[in-house]
Fold this sequence. Notes:
This protein is mainly alpha-helical. The protein is 76% helix and 0% strand. The longest helix is centred in the middle third of the chain and has 20 residues, at 421-440.
Amino acid sequence: MRKGVIVLIAALGCLWCGADASVLTSGGRTHFDRGRELYALGRWADAREEFAAVCGAVPQTESSLCVEADYYMAMCAMELKEAGAEARLAEFLRRNPESVHVNDVEFALASLLCTAGRYDEAQRAFGKVDYATLSPEHRQQYDIRMGYIRFQQGDYDDALRYFRRIPSPSEYSDHALYYISYIAYVRGDNAMARAGFTELSRSAAYGAVAPFYLLQIEFNEGNYRYVVTTGGSLIDRAAGERRTELERIVAEGWFHLGDYGRTEEFLDAYRRSGGEMGRNENYLLGYSLYRQARYDEARPCLQQVCGADDALTQNASYHLADCYLRGGDKQRAMQSFAMAANEAFDAAIAEDALFNYGKLQYELGGGLFNEAIHVLNRYIAQYPTSERAVQARELLIAAYYNSRNYEAAYTALKHYPSPDGNLRAALQKIAYFRGLEAYSRGDLDGAAQSLSESAAINVSPKYGALARFWLGEIAFARGDYAEAERRYKEYLHRAPRTEDEYAKAHYNLGYCYFDRGDMSNAYASFARFNQLYSAADRYKADALNREADARYSLRQFSAALATYEKAAAVGTNEKYYADFQRAVTLGILDRGPQKIEALQRIIAADRGDYVDDATYELGRTYIAAERYDDGAKVLSKFVEENPHSPFFTPALSDLGLAYLNLGQPELSRRCYERVVESAPGSATARDALQGIREIYVADGNVDGYFAYAEKAGVECDTSVMARDSLSFAAARKIYLSGDTAAAEKSLRSYLRNYPKGYYTDDALFYLSDCHLKAKQTDAAIETLSELAARPTNQYSARTLGTLSKLTSEAGRHAEAAKAYRALYDVVQTADERAAAATGYFRSVEAGGDDAATLAAAAEVETLPDAGTTAQREAKFACATILRRGGKQAEALPLYRELSREVKTAEGAESAYRVIEATLAGGDAAAAETLIFAFAEKGSPHAYWVAKAYIALGDIYAGRDDSFQARATYQSIVDGYSPADDGIVAEAKARIEKLKK
């Protein structure tokens, strides 16, 4: 630059020497001349002072000298690299657009911008320069700078155009040749690059760097002997970053020559020099240590390489797997083989890695997501002719047998076009367990299909028998007792007596007989079960109760009594029923005092589902024994405390009878009137009305009876009442005959003709059954709703049970919720109330109203027998609503509570939500602990387990542990199913993001 400026100044001096000196004053000229001399010597600061003095020493009429001085001052500012130099040059151009120096100043300004690294601005500034009028020296400067600008902008072709215009030899020819050679090197034109760098090796400017590029060129062409031979001498002469890079290149040269000791030696030097151990460097060192059988030292190096899905990871992870195997760590060996199994890279490595991946995964238990099955299937599909395909199939069959993901295993097995005997045996077992899974979630149709398939395969006698047992269970659940009986008998014919299901088949067969009234066979089946089954649990207690019930029905009362006592002695909740039935049986055996004592004990204990029954039975027993005062005391208390009991109306009727016998007709009449009021359309009300009539008649107040009947709105005409009774009896007879259509017509006629009939409850119940048999769902719902709206009666529990189910299935959620809630109040056992509470909450939630759902959840919390299912689902719904509303802090305690049990869908998702919140709080270590705890609990809800494992992979990635991150994501990709719900795609995306 300085030389160019001197030339420029010399040229200008020639021009100025030809000017008329008479226009310059001696003082101004003296400063100007001295300034030019100093400028030519490169004394920019001194020159600037002289030029600054010019304008003050000349008159205003001689301003041209000031312009010349201003030009030089701008150039001095540039040479001195002053902060205002750019502005000074720009200002000169603005004030002197006609000056002869404009092109030089434009060139100087562009050069200044280039030096400052402002390449786009510099390019625009050079565009204003008239290249043709520049001196040869400035043209070279122009070309070298424009070439460099275009080089920096990435336009190599345009850069070459400028560099090639620079003549050789010249001041800038070596610089131009360097960039020409470098571009050739980058583009892989080794011949041109070699020629250029060879010439530059004799250059003063590039002689030190040229051998480095020549070494790289030989390295790229595989001339590793040249690299290690020449590289050593270059290292001795190099320093700093250049030395470090040379050590790296020579290390890799020795690696390719197979000298792993020298590779290690130069990589150690590279590392000591401050070289960064990236993936490539760690691979070179790890593999070198591996080849020297230093497996423990090789492991951490090779592990650093793994993560990204590329050939380097494949190679490193393949050898890393061998290191882990030699160290006895099968888990990490399996994870390493998983990363090496991508056939997109080295095919031989991929095949061997895939087989070992599947084999080790099987040996380690199959994997959290059944990876062994998926991987072995993949191996067989990709390498069907491999000599290891037979072994892979054997492992696959074993993996299927051990699998718990029966849906995925079933799907895979069904894809085999011609399965052999072993695969058919595996399919039979998997179909069996798949059927059990469907049964457990309430899918009876799916369960029946799978179990029927298992039974039809019939390779394994064990699973053939068991499938028939569960087909019997399905038939029983559907109410098809004949089919259930057939299936249980088939099972008993095939199964050994040592199987757990053998005894239970007798138990279930007993219920088939029991529910259709065949008490002789029911007794025999339950008695056989009790002989075979030794455990003292609820099955035992229930079977003893049913055996006793059957004996009771067969009028074997003494034997029934003894069996009820055995059932009570088991000590489970079934004892409450057994104690009550024992008391009833004592009455049948005419052991009244003992019966009363037994009932009193039940009432005093105040536990179980039969306290109400016992209280009502005690009152009835007192009345039957003509102890009317005791009976009245018991029953009066009962009706006041149990207004929703199914015994409420009968108890009022019995209480009326007790008061009548105690000579208290007024109290008797009031009880009978409450019967009529609470159950107006019932036979009990008809009998109560008869009692009221007799009391009024006995009092001589017949008009009072008619006035009461008119006020109460009941029929009191005996002839009408008789017709009512006869009309219902006729309709009932048709109903019992099984002629549904005719029965429906007759029952509707009865209800229409006797809107206040005494058999309205019975008629509505029979009519609803006709609708159900005719599959008239809407009509059945309408009739059942009408019956449910009536006071509690003998049909209330059955009516509400059927109504709640029908409305729920029809999507009429509000009606279903109302029916389930009412059902809770009328059923007798805790289990029935729990089922009703669950149905109630699910129906409210299905309505989609968050406010209603929260209110229902709060109500469920107050129900003493709501049961764990309803309470769990209510809490989960509350947590979900809170989370959706942005109230994560309030939702988290609920999720924590629910996450203790992950077998349920709510518990599994809750466990994930706790993990998610813990990660959001920044505690990755605690989240990792929670994830492992979640996985160890064996949740069947793979979606949430997989979500947790993606979070685990993210934790590892956040720690820069690419190996564990990749292994975690890969386990999901290779094992999780289904493949289309977003989980696998999410895991693959995570793998893509891992650092390469």
